[in-house]
């Protein structure tokens, strides 16, 4: 399989030029509050039998993106990079896109919208202008932790910008422990699934107040299959963030057990083919190799 959602970061550069990076990360995160580098990532993937990954930004900064691109330059197991550009400043975004797309592995953009105080971020005219540039470059836009503030906005974005591929990380973070909130999540989730340019990541499902087990998560998986179909779903381990909930191997084992209920061709889609097609990865699917 290809892991469509993996992070690396180096806290040696936690503060550069007076700017604090990874501001969401601190001592309160326990074992997560340290550097997670390329060698440890490769060892983790090898131990789980994963052949490669897409690196995804963990900080709204150029420094984080440049670090991931440098890791990709040194490591052929990095099949793609989803970085950050300043979406609310189109001229700056255009310059950053010009620079980053010189790297063929730069395949998408993400912004930590759940940490941004602007509830209307995805509807801002400047952001829409920048995302039009993202689409023109053939890149994707990942939306993290969309529920509750931004899942409806993601639906509007996908509907109003059909030329942009919108990737919903972590199934939008469904509030599985709250039946009433689940009704709201399900309505927007299904609405997003009706947009053909939307893709869902089966990732980041260590949810508050919920046991991480196949039988508990199966309703979410079935909702995703119903809304998106396997051809618009991809698997991601969300390492190392997921280690707060379970070791990487256990995180994948639960997801793989869910995926095993699909037909062989559908499993191929979720495990590799959707990621390759969505991100335009220069990789041959194992099923075709």
Overview of the molecule:
The protein contains nine helices and ten strands. The model has no long low-confidence stretch (mean pLDDT 95). The radius of gyration is 18 Å and the shape is globular. By secondary structure, the chain is of the alpha/beta class. The protein has a single domain (2-288), classed as TIM Barrel (Alpha-Beta Barrel). Strands 1-4-5-6-7-8-9-10 form an eight-stranded parallel β-sheet. Strands 2-3 form a two-stranded antiparallel ribbon. The two termini are 13 Å apart.
Name the shape in a single word: globular
How many structural domains does the protein architecture include?
Answer: 1
Stretches with pLDDT under 50, minimum 5 residues: none
Helix content: 25-40%
* Rg result: 18 Å
- The CA-CA distance between the termini, in Å, is 13 Å
Strand order of the largest sheet: 1-4-5-6-7-8-9-10
Strand content: 5-15%
- Output the CATH topology: TIM Barrel
Treating each run of at least 4 consecutive H or I residues as one helix, how many helices?
A: 9
**Main sheet record:** 8 strands, parallel
Tally of DSSP β-strands: 10
Going by CATH, the architecture would be Alpha-Beta Barrel
Structural class: alpha/beta
Q: Could you give me the name of the CATH homologous superfamily?
A: Metal-dependent hydrolases
Mean pLDDT: 95
SSE ordering: EEEHEHEHEHEHEHEHEHH
What's the multimeric state? Answer: single chain
**Class, according to the CATH hierarchy?**
Alpha Beta
């Amino acid at each position: 399989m290809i892991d469509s959602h993996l992070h690396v970061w180096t806290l040696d550069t936690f503060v550069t030029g007076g700017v604090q990076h990874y501001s969401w990360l601190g001592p309160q995160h326990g074992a997560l509050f340290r550097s997670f580098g390329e060698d440890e990532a490769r060892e983790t993937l090898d131990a789980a039998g994963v052949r490669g990954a897409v690196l995804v930004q963990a900080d709204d900064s150029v420094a984080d993106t440049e670090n991931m691109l440098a890791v990709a330059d040194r490591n052929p197991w990095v099949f793609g990079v989803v970085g950050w550009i300043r979406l609310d400043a189109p001229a700056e975004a255009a310059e950053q896109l010009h620079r980053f797309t010189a790297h063929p592995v730069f395949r998408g953009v993400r912004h930590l919208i759940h940490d941004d105080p602007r509830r209307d971020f995805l509807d801002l005219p400047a952001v829409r202008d920048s995302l039009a540039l993202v689409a023109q470059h053939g890149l994707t836009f990942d939306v993290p932790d969309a529920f509750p503030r931004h899942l409806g906005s993601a639906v509007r974005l996908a509907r109003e910008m059909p030329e942009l591929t919108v990737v919903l990380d972590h199934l939008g973070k469904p509030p599985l422990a709250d039946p009433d909130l689940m009704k709201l999540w399900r309505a927007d989730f299904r609405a997003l699934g009706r947009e053909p340019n939307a893709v869902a990541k089966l990732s980041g499902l260590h949810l508050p107040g919920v046991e991480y087990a196949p039988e508990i998560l199966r309703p979410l998986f079935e909702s995703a299959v119903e809304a998106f179909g396997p051809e618009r779903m991809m698997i991601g381990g969300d390492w190392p963030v997921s280690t707060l909930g379970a070791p990487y191997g256990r995180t994948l084992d639960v997801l793989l057990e869910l995926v095993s209920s699909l037909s062989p061709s559908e499993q191929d889609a979720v495990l590799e083919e959707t990621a390759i097609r969505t991100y335009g990865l220069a990789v041959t699917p194992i099923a075709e190799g």
